[in-house]
Design a protein that fits this description.
The chain is mainly α and 326 residues long. It has one domain. The chain is built from eleven helices and four strands. Strand 3 and strand 4 form a beta hairpin. The longest helix is centred in the middle third of the chain and has 32 residues. The termini are far apart.
Length: 326
């Protein structure tokens, strides 16, 4: 099943999302200062509130489990996207991006990644509709990713430019330094691009790479392309402001990778079980394969994130006090 929503609903939803993106651009253009904690808090609450209103609309007007699927998908995508923030922090530091330009860079990079993710989502929905064995592939990939993420721990490696970014540096007319938040400037009468273009490309590619994990994960919660697309869109739209709000707090959530690996492993196993049910396999030996509903999935995801955050803050607080007393 690709989507239960009518074409009219699709058109209205896409128009609404584009309007929000355009409104966000107007706000950035009018802002004359760096993003403050107060600004970031207000906008995070705004985007979370929009997602909540959208969920209420699905619960009221949409048939079936669409509302619950959106909530579970949104929480999953948002929590997995938090891991992106580590990479964003590294990229901003690696390229020494001026503070006033960071908001604009993140905005453009995330909008580009939203468009690329939409292509991946539609392709994934088409693949699932065409062949049920794709569930096995997605499930195995998520379990593998969960194991890899758990083994990596909380050690974040330094950002390294890939071949695409190095190629852009060779072919684009780039200046050596920044010109505020400008993407284009003039040097000796010649129009040139600033390094912000490379930073935007780096952030967009990082988001797409993370989508290789998050999109199969949300397909483990729903196969409705409409829910997958909107959950991704709302999660990404609120990600930029979250960067400014909790950038420093990320260092204290030391068990984030562990929590995310547990969630990915859970959804991967859920996908494999659903694939087995689709193949009319309800038992493996004496083990009965349960049906994992959306309420169970939502409760597990929310509980895992809560435990991960609380334990991380307790541990980091203990370590900080021990350092202060030494």
């Amino acid at each position: 099943m690709v989507s239960v929503m009518s074409p009219v609903v699709w058109v209205l939803t896409i128009a609404g999302l584009l309007a929000i993106v355009a409104f966000d651009l107007i706000v950035i253009a009018r802002r004359k200062h760096s993003v403050t904690i107060k600004d970031a808090t207000r906008w995070v609450l705004f985007y979370v509130g929009l997602a909540a209103l959208f969920a209420v609309g699905l619960f009221v007007f949409s048939p079936g489990a669409s509302g619950g699927e959106f909530v579970a998908g949104y929480i999953t995508e948002y929590s997995l996207s938090v891991d992106n923030l580590f990479v964003f922090v590294i990229i901003m530091a690696r390229f020494a991006v001026p503070a006033p330009a960071q908001d604009k860079v993140l905005y453009i990079g995330i909008v580009v990644s939203m468009l690329l993710r939409a292509v991946f989502i539609l392709a994934g929905a088409a693949a699932i509709s065409a062949a049920s064995w794709v569930f096995y592939l997605f499930g195995a990939f998520l379990v593998y990713t969960a194991i890899r993420l758990a083994l990596e721990g909380d050690d974040e490696t330094d950002f390294q430019e890939n071949a695409v970014l190095r190629g852009l540096r060779r072919i684009l007319p780039l200046t050596h330094g920044y010109d505020g938040s400008r993407l284009v400037t003039r040097v000796d009468g010649r129009r040139m691009l600033t390094p912000l273009v490379i930073v935007i490309a780096a952030i967009g590619m990082a988001n797409v790479i993370f989508a290789l994990d998050s999109i199969p994960a949300i397909f483990g919660l729903t196969q409705d392309a409409y829910i997958v697309l909107t959950a991704n869109a709302f999660a990404l739209m609120g990600l930029r402001q979250l960067y400014f709000l909790i950038g420093g707090l990320l260092e204290r959530v030391i068990y984030l990778n562990v929590g995310l690996s547990v969630i990915l492993a859970f959804i991967g196993v859920k996908l494999i079980i659903e694939a087995l049910h689709g193949s009319h396999i309800d038992d493996i030996g004496a083990i009965h394969l349960p049906h994992i509903g959306i309420a169970t999935s939502l409760g597990f995801i929310a509980g895992t994130l809560l435990v991960t955050t609380v334990v991380s803050l307790i541990k980091s607080g203990y370590d900080r006090r021990r350092v202060e007393t030494d």
